Amino acid sequence: MAKEGEPWEWRMSFPDGMSMLFVSECIPHTPGFVVGLLGLMQSGWRYGTSEPRKIIHCFKVGMALCLVSLFYYVDPLYEGVGGNAMWAVLTVVVAFEYTVGATICKCVNRTTATFIAGALGVGVHWVATLFGKEWEPIILQGSVFFFASSTTFLRFLPSVKTHFDHGALIFIFTFILVSVSGYRMPDLFDFAQHRLSNVAIGTSICVVTSIFCCPVWAGNELHSLILNNMEKLADSLDAYVAVYLRDDADDMKKEASKEKLVGYRSVLDSMSTEESLVNYARWEPAHGGFSFKHPWKDYLELGALLRSYANCIDTLSGIVSDTKAPAFLKRHFSTVCLKLSLNSSAVLRELVVVVRTSAESPKIGLRQKEMCVAVQELHNTLKVLSNQNTVATETKPEEFSEGKGESVLPFVAIVQLVTLSSLLIEIVARTEKLVNAVNILAHKVTNSE
Amino acid sequence: MAKEGEPWEWRMSFPDGMSMLFVSECIPHTPGFVVGLLGLMQSGWRYGTSEPRKIIHCFKVGMALCLVSLFYYVDPLYEGVGGNAMWAVLTVVVAFEYTVGATICKCVNRTTATFIAGALGVGVHWVATLFGKEWEPIILQGSVFFFASSTTFLRFLPSVKTHFDHGALIFIFTFILVSVSGYRMPDLFDFAQHRLSNVAIGTSICVVTSIFCCPVWAGNELHSLILNNMEKLADSLDAYVAVYLRDDADDMKKEASKEKLVGYRSVLDSMSTEESLVNYARWEPAHGGFSFKHPWKDYLELGALLRSYANCIDTLSGIVSDTKAPAFLKRHFSTVCLKLSLNSSAVLRELVVVVRTSAESPKIGLRQKEMCVAVQELHNTLKVLSNQNTVATETKPEEFSEGKGESVLPFVAIVQLVTLSSLLIEIVARTEKLVNAVNILAHKVTNSE
Asked: What residue ranges are annotated as transmembrane (chains A, B) (predicted)?
């Protein structure tokens, strides 16, 4: 966003390749809030063109809210819900989420909590009335304090927080609403029933719109996220090793690989997204290639392994970032290191196929063997280096001088290459763990169908 | 949690050292839901004893809700809010968060959104009435669709999502409530005003209870989180290097260091917590040692650097996990590697002091110099190893045999030790970045006071 006083530009790009450019020079002395608003519109435009499904979701929300507000306009509907249509509206506003799973999770939570809290509220109110008008507020206040405090405490527990957070909130609210309203309300049971039926109407509209109108499944999203992350890691690994070892790459190629280099970073940041998608995916009915019993929980394990793989690439990025290996050392290493990294990323890409088709791949075993051969070759090369290093120390003291400070580069480069090899071998070890996890997943998927 | 049919145990530990043990043998054939309930109680008990401040928060929520439900019991109050006290109750239920910052953020969002949406709703309703009774529902439905869809879209934009997500939700709800209720309501302006005053009452109760009754500041939490993470990383680094290089550690010590070894993992998972705490801390007034202008955003940078440090330790853990360095190699390395890791963790612990006191420490420079000296010593030792390796190859072919496959261990150990050194040097580089970030933070804090 441009600062106040500075000229700003706003380019709108259309799908057909045309674009329009707005420059603030046209409007001298643009006020700050206009610049802010245009900045917001610009980022909105960019976001909307890159994520069209989000726009469809917005239309779905608008549609569902128009539908639910019919309960205000149509007389029989309005009277049917006892003039409390706002609870249905509030339900749609709060419970309509982007994915089907999240919507179902919130709706089930909301309806169940409303039912339990409504029944409990009516019960507590009935008990309170038995003690007479004087004691009634005291007993009601005591029960509000007790249930509100204990439910708030439950919300802190991880198992409750993950699955029933929204339900706990609605439980507190409905309980207070029903039990305390009874103090002023002649027919409390009717009131509780209206609240429940309103919430049920709202949740039905949410669930139906969410499932039958361009559904976005949390399971699908999770599946694509994991696949994308695998591909990003394979790309990052290839890019780092290539940038470090190859010098034939021209500037254009480097520019193209920049995006690939940093791809692993988004993998590091995807934990919370994965966790919430796993929770929501478990609420979804069978869809696409996923049965109701699809082993979604195993994706958490997969995600954790991918992050540990990404940690290695992050360390690698630090170690190889500044310096380039000198040419005479690279002749030993570049072929075998590139082979190892290419084999390792090939295994990862094969795993993408396995996860995508949910069928064990015959190629995986072959690729794994190739990877192991490449590890052995790297080991051998390291040993040869150790030998040649001995020779080099004797014949080229100016290049390998261990005792002298003036030519540190080759020594640093050796340490770097050994470290690179070691990290590549560690990456292979983590790839093996991934292969196991993916095989277990594929096996479970085959059994669950 | 015990499975059904299996015996279960439940131990309650009291602060005075006493404990009670419940065993299911006492109740034969315990039903599943009882086991589940007892499991929940057990985890609740453990959580409550370890986090007493959360229990205080629960009492605060109970108290605030009792306070707000007085608007039902006391006649003048009930009439004052037009019988709509439930909006005040709902506000307290939804907007009362654990930290002061989160509560203020939600309350400001809620009040502002209610005001804007209420005004807009009244305006749209007035425009709709101008077109006559037939067109009114159509115009109202159109405006509901437009504002609901566009606000839902705004909620996806990262900048809006971070700061105004709750406000956007309340905007949609209040707008629909006010504009559509107008269809049935004789005095819409009064209705909108009552909703606003109810929300204002709820938010005031939230903010006052949150600030003046055992406040939990998001800023403090963030500050402690960062400090704890720094200490965990220092402990993990020391523990890994010690476990790998020392063999005098007995089993008891190993048991004690197990917790330290895995401490870095929680640092890797703390990103989303840090981000939300930073957002909330920025809403908080001056408290403790933190002014209103405290540079909270800089903690994000600090958190990112700590995670990149933790990535290195994760890689280290993979590389040194299985094997131990053979004794004859360790005599070269253990002193200098331990020195480097201890110096590096000492710098980290010094940084903890700097962040805690928010004053630049004179010791940091000294510790950094010591760390650099240790890096140089490690470099020298690597060079010496390279020399001695040459000698060893000539004199001890059975130990270093490069060409023969039967004694791989020393060769693997050399590669491992070189990698360990390289990772330690990389950790030093990341420590330097941390020192810079902490210095910048300390400088900003001094200026902001």
From this structure: 20-43, 55-74, 86-105, 112-132, 138-157, 169-186, 198-218
- pLDDT band, residue A221 (cuts 50/70/90): very high
Best mutation target, B54, B134, B149, B377, to test chain A (most A CBs within 10 A): B149
* Region B402-415 average pLDDT: 54
Distance CA A391, CA B433 (A): 39
SS (HEC) of chain B: CCCCCCCCEEEEECCCCCEEEEEHHHCCCCCHHHHHHHHHHHHHHHHHHHCHHHHHHHHHHHHHHHHHHHHHHCHHHHHHCCCCHHHHHHHHHHHCCCCHHHHHHHHHHHHHHHHHHHHHHHHHHHHHHHCCCCCHHHHHHHHHHHHHHHHHHHHHCHHHHHHHHHHHHHHHHHHHHHHHHCCCCCCHHHHHHHHHHHHHHHHHHHHHHHHHCCCCCHHHHHHHHHHHHHHHHHHHHHHHHHHHHCCCCCHHHHHHHHHHHCHHHHHHCCHHHHHHHHHHHCCCCCECCECCCCCCCHHHHHHHHHHHHHHHHHHHHHHHCCCCCCHHHHHHHHHHHHHHHHHHHHHHHHHHHHHHHCCCCHHHHHHHHHHHHHHHHHHHHHHHHHHHHHHHHHHCHHHHCCCCCCCCHHHHHHHHHHHHHHHHHHHHHHHHHHHHHHHHHHHHHHHHC
Those of residues 348-387 in B touching chain A at CB distance below 8 A are: 379, 382-384, 386-387
CA distance A357 to chain B (A): 30
Alpha-carbon gap, residue A418 to A130, rounded angstroms: 82
CB atoms inside a 10 Å sphere around CB B328: 12
Mind telling me how many Å the CA of A118 is from chain B's nearest CA? 15
A300 interface with B at CB cutoff 8 Å: no
Note the pLDDT tens digit of each residue in A341-378: 889 999 999 999 988 887 777 888 888 888 888 888 88
Structure tokens at A280: 């929501």
Write the pLDDT tens digit of every residue in A245-285: 766 555 555 666 777 888 889 999 899 999 999 999 999 99
> How many residues would you count in chain B?
449
Mean pLDDT of all residues in chain B? 82
Residue to mutate among B47, B176, B240, B430, with most A CBs inside 10 A, is B176
The residue of chain B with its CA nearest to that of A394 is B390
Taking an 8 Å cut-off on Cβ atoms, the answer to whether A145 and B66 are in contact is yes
* Distance separating alpha carbons of residues A64 and A72, to the nearest angstrom: 14
The whole-angstrom distance between A95's CA and the closest CA on chain B is 11
Shortest CB distance from A62 goes to which of B148, B387, B402? B148
Name the maximum alpha-carbon separation found in chain A: 105
Specify the 3-state DSSP secondary structure of A329.
helix
Touching check for A397 and chain B: CB below 8 Å? no
* CB atoms B152 and A61 under 8 Å: yes
- Among residues 163-182 of chain A, which lie with CB inside 8 Å of chain B? 169, 172-173, 176-177, 180-181
pLDDT in tens, B118-129: 999 999 999 998
Task: Measure B38 CA to nearest chain A CA, in Å.
Answer: 13
Residue B218: its pLDDT value, please?
A: 93
Q: Alpha-carbon distance B283 to B274, whole Å?
A: 15
Element (H, E) at A371: helix A363-395
Of A69, A86, A314, the CB nearest to B141: A69
Q: Which two tokens stand for residue B151?
A: 């606000």
Q: CB–CB of A174/A195 below 8 Å?
A: yes
> What is the tally of helices (H) and strands (E) in chain A?
17, 2
Q: A54–B314: do the CB atoms touch at under 8 Å?
A: no
Contact (CB<8Å) B159/A48: no
